[in-house]
Amino acid sequence: MKQFRKEPTLSVEQHIDAFLDEWQATTVRVAQEVQAKNISALRDINVLPGMTGSGNTINVEGMRHLSLAAEKLLVREKLAAKLQRWTAIKALGEGLQAHLPRALTTKTLSEHAIVAKAVATLRAYPRDDGLYVFPVVFASRATTTDFNIGAARIVAKPIFEAELVDAWKRHDSVEDKHGFGAGLADDWRQHSADFDHFIVVTMEGFEEKMAWTAAMDAAQMLLNILRMYFGYQTMDDVRIGNGFIWQNKRSSIRLTKQGDICLSSSFGGAGSHLESGWEVAFGRDLSGFAMLLTTTVTWPTVNEGRPDPMFERLIYFNRLIAEAYGEPHDPIRLVRLISALEAFSLIGSADKAHNLAHRCGAAGGWGDPLQYCTIYDAVREGYRWRNAVVHGDAPSDTDVRRAFYGIEHHLLSIYLGMLSLHAGIANDVRPRSVSGLRREFTSRIDMFFWAPSLVT
Questions:
Q1: Among 21, 30, 86, 76, CA closest to 53
Q2: Distance CA 334, CA 418 (A)
Q3: Chain-centre distance of CA 179, in angstroms?
Q4: 3-state helix, strand and coil shares in percent for the chain, rounded to the nearest 5
Q5: CA angle 344, 229, 397 (to 5 degrees)
Q6: Do 109 and 20 touch, CB atoms closer than 8 A?
Q7: What's the pTM value of the predicted model, to 2 decimals?
Q8: Cα–Cα distance between 195 and 135 in angstroms, integer?
Q9: Mind listing the pLDDT tens digit for each residue in 380-416?
Q10: Angle CA(57)–CA(58)–CA(63) in degrees, nearest 5?
Q11: Which helix or strand (DSSP H or E) is residue 137 part of?
Q12: Is 318 helix (H, G, I), strand (E, B) or coil?
């Protein structure tokens, strides 16, 4: 077997030092090839982001070191989730340009001076704070919804649109009615016309592109909690904008053997049948978990981007759950559900079906042996049919749906249990690796079933 040499781990400054060597070599090479009028030999040379004028070129190896330095710098400054890597790359390029006058005087290039300038630039970089809005097909008859969990708020369309009246007046007063901005406004109005609710996420300290990603995670977390609370049969047609959108109106055509056209149309099916006031029972039933859920939904909006196995597992679980509830195909819906539970319960490689069923039962049983056994059997059955799907054994739709509903009926209880256990681990030891988190979860899950307070 071919052996690969592991590249040494370098610091930000060491990567910049290596980048400077490549930059100087590139500058000399470019000058020589230009003088020789051999431009075709520079196809591997790129423009250096953040620099203007002479010397603003870099080779592939130099760009690699610059990119790695930017990545590490964002992590070190607790900005990896808030600013794009490209923003940090440009800041380092600007740092080099700002440093050049002094370097020409001292005849020395200082990687520390370049990094210090980049840090100052990143800390002062403008952030796109504010409210990030996601239209939702949720419940057209629930016209008074106004409910928040942490940084995410779900609000009925009439309420939110009334709040935007003044903002729209300001926007429209400065836009040419035939201009680009007016066209964007028309696009939004047409796009949002088919939705009945909005999820609004408060974001601070993020660059816009990064903010949209984190805000979507927070919005999906809130929506997933509602999905798990009300159940799939109530929430299967609930969709968030830019996701799996259910069609309000569908039309079909077929031709008879004689060549005659037959048409049919179907209407409705979007959202749920929840009515105004649904949040009263929801808030009452989950009041004991209010602080935990608030912290969880807010986490993506304050995440600093440092590697955190617990946060990564939480995000992966919620994305898979959102995909499961939005998935139109029964077999893949079951696969996504099982994958979400596997991610959050941190099962190992041995006897996956038993270990997953046991952890789900212990987390969702809350000290009730009968509940434990019910969840255990449901997850084992679900895992069986999940295996049939992924290995191409083509189980019947009836078996797959039965397996999905068997687990989904207990999903909120499982989620709250696992979330509580993860929170207890975070408060106690805060593991920094998946293997460390798996060890803690494994050592505590049995005790959690009998006495949650002792391990959280």
A1: 30
A2: 19
A3: 34
A4: 60, 10, 30
A5: 75
A6: yes
A7: 0.87
A8: 6
A9: 999 999 999 999 888 888 999 999 999 999 999 999 9
A10: 140
A11: strand 130-137
A12: helix
